[in-house]
Amino acid sequence: MGSSGFSWKLADHPKLPKGKTVAVVVLDGWGEAKPDQYNCIHIAETPVMDSLKKGATEKWRLVRAHGTAVGLPTEDDMGNSEVGHNALGAGRIFAQGAKLVDLALASGKIFDGEGFNYVKECFALGTLHLIGLLSDGGVHSRLDQLQLLLKGASERGAKRIRLHVLTDGRDVLDGSSVGFVETIEKDLAELRSKGIDAQIASGGGRMYVTMDRYENDWNVIKRGWDAQVLGEAPHKFKSAVEAVKTLRAAGANDQYLPPFVIVDDSGKAVGPIVDGDGVVTFNFRADRMVMIAKSLEYADFDKFDRVRVPKIRYAGLLQYDGELKLPTHYLVSPPEIDRTSGEYLVHNGVRTFACSETVKFGHVTFFWNGNRSGYFNPEMEEYVEIPSDVGITFNVQPKMKAVEIAEKARDAILSRKFDQVNYGAFMWLYRKFETNIF
Question: CA angle, corner 238, sides to 234 and 239, nearest 5?
Fold first, then answer.
């Protein structure tokens, strides 16, 4: 028995014989829905999945990957690969980021915690900057949470607020950015009527500005840094509504909107981040916030030339990496996910192999292991990351690295070195193929 009163010992499987390698294949994005012409999986050629389903109908089970089944607030909340892999890896349901934030906002505890009080020290003389995805998609952030943060901060002494908005078009419809910007502009106008200097300072599309992940492309972070911190961008506008409408009219979609800054009548940026300011990244999902957190917090940062590094008070909405303790300060404590399957397996002498490409590697390692980086036991585990192609969008190359991932998984199985092989491939919306590794 462990110190917590439970045993790590797992009973033998009642049917699965010892000595057989188990493959755990996560098709991220695969699902079953109404079979019509809008269902890409239904209209695609999927002989492998079809044969598996028809060959063992009694074993085919559907599991919910959204809503309360994966720890999200309501059944209306779509799932995402983070909460899905957390639930799969832990085998249990934990209250997840959005729900934790909702509870903290509803109770007001978010404004009494260490993280908010740390940032609040800037209110007297500095500016509060809020950086994140402007969307109600509920995957990375939610508009209503941002609105409550604005309200709570203004009521607690924030006199100068700047928003750095990232447009979505991925978790919500492309083009919805205009409506979101108009909505938040009304909220800011109301704050200004109360004597609070509140404005949007910069923006850009989520896939082109700030929200890269797994150190795939630091240029994405640099474009955000230049606009948000330095107040520099290739496009300058008097308002965010004008910026989004103009850039979209020029051919950019919400996801890839180029960076822009808002300027005053003299052409000066209205809200660069400077010494003495406070910064909060208001996304609750971790994977696309780690890189910006590093650039804001690390003194020895060397991924790109930051030019100017302001002395700020920075906090994340959540702690985005528990292993790195990043960021140091955060407004809401993340879920404590313990006793994950990976930890159980190494305690039982089960050798595991995990593989995916860069943009999904953290899903079969970090998220699977309960938001924990690194190995539980490096002698029992092997993780392989296949570099994603930089600058090639998923709709252009929908298969991504599925073939290379499958080949690595095949080799791991045939090596007989591992008892369990985990691998994940992102099933993009436009997929028209399948990979059979055997």
Answer: 100
Q: 186 is in which domain, residue-wise?
A: 98-332
Mean pLDDT of 27-43: 87
d(CA 294, CA 218): 11
- Do 150 and 275 lie in a common domain? yes
Catalytic residue among 51, 81, 202, 239: 81
Q: Which two three-digit tokens encode residue 341?
A: 């399957």
Q: Classify residue 109 by its DSSP letter.
A: G
How many domains in the chain?
2
Whether 244 is in a domain gets the answer yes
- How far are the Cα atoms of 60, 199, 270, 324 from residue 182, in angstroms, in the given order? 46, 12, 18, 37
Residue in the block written with tokens 């000595």: 19
Whether residue 132 is found in the same domain as residue 48: no
User: Which of 55-64, 169-178, 182-191, 354-363 shows the lowest mean pLDDT across its residues?
Assistant: 55-64
Smallest CA-to-CA distance from 168 within 202, 129, 211 is with 211
Summarised one tens digit per residue, pLDDT across range 271-318 is: 999 999 999 999 998 889 999 999 999 999 999 999 999 999 999 999
CATH number at 43 reads: 3.40.720.10
- The reply to whether 202 belongs to the active site is no
pLDDT at position 133 over 60: yes
405 three-class SS: helix
CA distance 409 to 421: 7
Q: What is the mean pLDDT of residues 327-333?
A: 95
In a domain, 17, yes or no: no
Model pLDDT, residue 436: 38
How high is the pLDDT of residue 48?
86
**Mean pLDDT estimate for the chain:** 91
pLDDT in tens, 226-252: 999 999 999 999 999 999 999 999 999
Q: Out of 332, 360, 389, pick the residue that ends a domain.
A: 332
**CA gap 27, 7 in Å, rounded:** 32
Rg (CA), the chain: 23
The CATH code of the domain that includes 135 is 3.40.1450.10
Is residue 8 assigned to a domain? no
pTM of the model: 0.70
Among 332, 365, 380, which residue terminates a domain? 332
**Are 85 and 125 members of one domain?**
no
3-class secondary structure, 426: strand
Q: Which residues have CB under 8 Å from 77's CB, separation 6+?
A: 66, 67, 98, 138
